[in-house]
């Protein structure tokens, strides 16, 4: 489904990724600075490798030999960061609806109401983004990612900075997304208990290499 074989170099940092994702949820662990976030950014198109290929569902996202580098907005890959990046001048409903513009109605995988129900966002729809708690904002961020109808969902330490109470709120929602959407996901974290809860396949990254 996802095949990565590329090299990335920035300053004194080198990343060599060989990844063949088979399971629906792949967890990647590693120390800070090991290259986990850089890996996700290369897959999403935020960063560009200098060599290799990235293939999703038999569609080349990057290939240096064929000079292919699909722009980020065309990759059908959603990346959720540690901090929920919402439009502060919009309410929750407007933030969610914004994601629907990136795909045609024929290609939509989830309906607005399906995502709202899935993540229990109905009571938050009229609330401004800046009024949300950290856990609420991250739920909206996940919902917006789903409404962009991606073929792959990348989560870069989505629970970082949240206290245990909020983590305990978000993890069940992530499990619901996993169980009910069948959407392939790569989940980066420092915390093995999160991956255990989600029953993820786990790989480790050390000094820019996955094992």
From TrEMBL:
<dbReference type="Pfam" id="PF00005">
    <property type="entry name" value="ABC_tran"/>
</dbReference>
<protein>
    <submittedName>
        <fullName>Molybdenum ABC transporter ATP-binding protein</fullName>
    </submittedName>
</protein>
<dbReference type="InterPro" id="IPR017871">
    <property type="entry name" value="ABC_transporter-like_CS"/>
</dbReference>
<dbReference type="GO" id="GO:0016887">
    <property type="term" value="F:ATP hydrolysis activity"/>
</dbReference>
<dbReference type="InterPro" id="IPR003593">
    <property type="entry name" value="AAA+_ATPase"/>
</dbReference>
<keyword id="KW-0547">Nucleotide-binding</keyword>
<feature type="domain" description="ABC transporter">
    <location>
        <begin position="1"/>
        <end position="211"/>
    </location>
</feature>
<keyword id="KW-0067">ATP-binding</keyword>
<dbReference type="GO" id="GO:0005524">
    <property type="term" value="F:ATP binding"/>
</dbReference>
<dbReference type="InterPro" id="IPR027417">
    <property type="entry name" value="P-loop_NTPase"/>
</dbReference>
<dbReference type="InterPro" id="IPR050334">
    <property type="entry name" value="Molybdenum_import_ModC"/>
</dbReference>
<dbReference type="InterPro" id="IPR003439">
    <property type="entry name" value="ABC_transporter-like_ATP-bd"/>
</dbReference>
């Amino acid at each position: 489904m996802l095949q990565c074989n590329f090299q990335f170099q920035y300053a004194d940092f080198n990343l060599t990724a060989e990844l063949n994702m088979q399971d629906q949820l792949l967890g990647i662990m590693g120390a800070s600075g090991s290259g986990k976030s850089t890996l996700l950014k290369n897959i999403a198109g935020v960063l560009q490798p200098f060599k290799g290929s990235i293939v999703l569902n038999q569609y080349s996202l990057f290939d240096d030999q064929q000079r292919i580098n699909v722009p980020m907005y065309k990759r059908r890959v959603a990346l959720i960061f540690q901090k929920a990046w919402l439009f502060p001048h919009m309410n929750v409903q407007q933030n969610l609806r914004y994601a629907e513009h990136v795909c045609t109605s024929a290609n939509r995988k989830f309906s607005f109401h399906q995502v709202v129900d899935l993540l229990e966002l109905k009571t938050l729809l009229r609330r401004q983004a800046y009024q949300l708690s950290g856990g609420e904002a991250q739920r909206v961020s996940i919902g917006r990612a789903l409404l962009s109808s991606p073929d792959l969902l990348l989560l870069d330490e989505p629970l970082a900075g949240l206290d245990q109470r909020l983590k305990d709120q978000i993890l069940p929602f992530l499990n619901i997304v996993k169980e009910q959407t069948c959407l392939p996901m790569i989940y980066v974290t420092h915390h093995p208990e999160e991956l255990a809860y989600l029953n993820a396949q786990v790989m480790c990254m050390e000094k820019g290499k996955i094992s």
